[in-house]
Amino acid sequence: MPGLDLKNLPEREEDIDFSDIYEKHTISVDNDFDSIVVVDGAPIVDEAKEEKLLTVLKKLFTKGAGEIKESGIWMPMSPNDKGKMESKGYLFIDFESVESAHAAVKNLDGHKMSKTHQLSVNKFTDVEKYTNMNSEFKEPEFEEFKPKEHLRSWLADEQARDQFVMYRGDDVSIFWNRKTENPEHVYSRTNWTETYVQWSPLGSYLATFHTQGIALWGGPSWSKIVRFVHPGVKLIDFSPNERFLVTWSNEPISPSKIPEGSPNPFSEYDEGNQIIIWDVMTGALLRSFPLVQGNNETQKTIRWPMFKWSASEKYFARIVPGQQLSVYEAATMGLVGKKSIKIEGIVDFEWSPAKPDQADAHQKEDVLAYWTPEVGNQPARVTMMTVPSKEIIRTKNLFNVTDCKLHWQSKGRFLAVKVDRHTKTKKSTFSNIEIFRVSEKAIPVETLEIKDPVLAFAWEPQGERFATITSNDPNYGAAPTQGVAPVTIKTQITFYYLDKSKAVAGFKPLKMLDKKTCNYIFWSPKGRHVVFATLRSSSVFDIEFYDVDFDPITTDKKEKEELGATVQLLSTQEHYGVTDIEWDPTGRFLVSGSSMWRHTADHGFCVWDFKGQLLFKQNIEKFKQLLWRPRPKSLLSPEQKKKIKKNLRQYSKVFEEEDLAAGDATAAKLIAARRKAVEEWYAWRKAAEARLAEERKSLGKELRTTDEGKSEIIEEWVEEVIEETEEIVE
Most buried among 31, 238, 353, 451, using CB within 10 Å? Predict the structure, then answer.
């Protein structure tokens, strides 16, 4: 011991300095326990089966997590009642890396080795943390109950109006639509979002984008409902019933970069991932995913939505282009069957919109369709599969395929596949439409041959008709010359219907319209009415309104029964610089907008009715975005809707009276405003005259009248016969 004086020993043992002994005999101990996991629930075996069990467990954890250190498994053994050595049902595993330990907890916790043995895997550091918890119960503090605002309060509007959100400059505002009048302002906030805004599918939430994540707003006061921390978020997508939210950022998640004191929902499992699925109700992070790309895709290529949801919201799926289809269960966030489906060459897929629990559902499970291109000697193929059974219910081989697009009818009864094909010489292209009749036995497929390429395809909502836009213009597909605006190509519109007059029903052309320039189709949400528009063109800005169930005003029976007579052009309008078109949820109104994001001048929007009559127009500087607020599905039954339609004339009287009263109120308001303006003018004039008289008086230039009471007032009475009647009295 340094400096120890034998004659002056310390009185107490605590005063003795042992530092030199500790330094000399220090033992280096590895205190990093993050690579160790504790496994509970293992089978209890004796010495004879110990080696076999350890071999099985080592193989399981090596495959599911990573490499284990040499002699890294320790399973305690102790004598049982009979004196034989027996395991205790738990063991410790030390991995080569911390990441492998994390993977073991993530992938093997809850793994069933048999019907009676389910493994429970936890980090060693977590076990120590939980054992050191305070054993004394402390009653939690309950917050005072505060009732939340109703997220669908806007549906109770007495006039059944619809709302829309407008983003202009730095301001985001909510308005009521008032047809021909200025929209009624509801709420505004400056710098409410940093990029753009988005409604949830049922209109309950308005999502705003921020550097640190997403915020959802709603209720009458437009307060913040929930916040999701995802730095650099760029894109979001809701599940059909608004239960889940998917967010994507081009910045990989790094929990260590989240500032201290800020909300940090991430753990080491989320490190490096870019996609997150959240629970909208609780705001909890359910699972994060890495960005996966196909062999021919680059980092700049992003497929969105990256995950697609089934109609029942029980499953969601994504593809690794060219390799596999991964279907996940929403309840567990795990793969269905614990593995992806290997599909060589897979390009795209779509879920059927039909729910299995619907009364008219023709499938007991969710259905999805995907397509694969020609690979080697294998033809291109469209396949339909049920989930979760993964049963293939229909396939269709295709040849000379360039591309395919999958279009489900809104009720899931038909699947239309737009097939872009090339000739054997590959010098020209054309299209086919393959229609799968999902509701029929064996799912027959009908082929519609179209000589020209199909630019756009759209089913009528809730109907069995569809429309296409095709083109045989030689300029179609040609790259524009540098410095020259793209040429507007000539197109053709064709309506198709399901002909049930024959034994085997088939789709046939209803009407064809040529010499058009439109390139987009917009069906009304309620069907029947459709708009064709020429968007993002530099020279043509046409918007055409059609009624597909028009009743011709004619007494000629043959003319009425003529094929396509019900398709009627209602109006052709023009909106200079139009970039976006959107129907309101009721199908009564349509908005066309010219956004500064896509056009350089004349920004603003127009509101049209379904007939194409202009109701309201407003030019707005720095106009960016206008979105109608979606409505949830009606709670009325089909019988109730039928009864309302039958008695519509009775309701229309009430509506007409309300419109008349509103018109009178508006006129009275306008007259009152004009009267007030005139009164203010006369008051100002009198005040100005009085002020001028005082100024003249102070300058000695007061005006004097020359009348001096000698003038007289002359009144002239004029009689005018307004009406004269003559009545003979007997």
Answer: 238
The string of pLDDT tens digits covering residues 666-700 is: 677 778 888 889 889 999 999 999 998 888 888 88
Residue 123 sits in a domain of what CATH number? 3.30.70.330
Domain presence at residue 160: yes
Is there a single domain that holds both residue 45 and residue 158? no
Q: 89 and 42 in contact (C-beta within 8 Å)?
A: yes
Whether residues 567 and 493 fall in one domain:
yes
Instruction: Kindly state the tokens that stand for 415.
Output: 């699947």
Strands (E), 388-536: 392-398, 401-408, 414-422, 429-437, 445-450, 454-459, 466-470, 491-499, 506-516, 520-523, 529-533
Rg (CA), the chain: 38
Residue recorded with tokens 């309060």: 153
Q: Are 458 and 519 a contacting pair, CB within 8 Å?
A: no
Clarify whether residues 118 and 160 are in a common domain: no
Q: What is the mean pLDDT of residues 379-395?
A: 95
Q: How many angstroms separate the Cα of 187 from the Cα of each of 3, 166, 222?
A: 81, 11, 8
**Residue 511, token pair as written in the block:** 């009407």
Which residue type sits at 140? P
| Cβ neighbours of residue 388 closer than 8 Å, sequence gap 6 or more | 315, 327, 329, 336, 337, 365
Q: Is residue 605 included in any domain, yes or no?
A: yes
My answer on whether 571 and 496 are in the same domain is yes
Compute how many other C-beta atoms are within 10 angstroms of the C-beta atom of residue 548. Answer: 22
Is residue 341 in a domain? no
Residues 588 and 628 in one domain: yes
User: What is the residue type of 378?
Assistant: Q
Cα 529 from Cα 172, distance rounded (Å) = 31
Phi then psi dihedrals of residue 15, to 5 deg: -85, -5
Band (7; pLDDT cuts 50, 70, 90): low
Counting the structural domains of the chain, the total is: 2
Buried b (16+ CB within 10 A) or exposed e, 466-480: bbbbbbebeebeeee
Please give the residue range of the domain that contains residue 465. Answer: 151-165+458-473+489-634
Burial class for 182, CB neighbours closer than 10 Å (0-12, 13-18, 19+) = exposed
| Whole-number percent of the chain with pLDDT over 90 | 58
Contacts of 74 (CB under 8 A, 6+ apart): 91, 92
- Averaging pLDDT over each range in 14-18, 338-342, 475-479, 702-706, which range is the top one? 338-342
Residue 586 CB neighbour total at 10 angstroms: 15
Q: Determine phi and psi for 290, rounding to 5 degrees.
A: -80, 160
Pair 155, 99 in one domain: no
The Cα 237–Cα 239 span in angstroms is 7
* pTM confidence score: 0.75
pLDDT(633) > 80: yes
Separation of alpha carbons 643 and 398, rounded Å: 47
Report the interhelical angle of 648-699 vs 638-646 (nearest 10°): 70
Classified as helix, coil or strand, 158 is coil
Q: In this structure, what DSSP letter does residue 255 have?
A: G
Structure tokens given for 40: 């509970």
Contact status, residue 496 vs residue 510, Cβ threshold 8 Å: yes
Last residue of some domain: 603, 634, 665? 634
- Same domain? For 469 and 546 the reply is yes
Please list, in sequence order, all residues whose beta carbon lies within 8 angstroms of the beta carbon of residue 3, skipping any fewer than 6 positions away: 17
Residues 6 or more apart whose CB falls under 8 angstroms from that of 215 comprise 207, 208, 224, 226, 227, 228
Q: How far is 395 from 316, CA to CA, in rounded Å?
A: 22
- Among the candidates 586, 613, 634, a domain finishes at 634
**Helix or strand holding residue 325 (H, E):** strand 324-329
What is the rounded end-to-end Cα distance, in angstroms, of the chain?
Answer: 151
How distant is the alpha carbon of residue 470 from its chain centre? 29
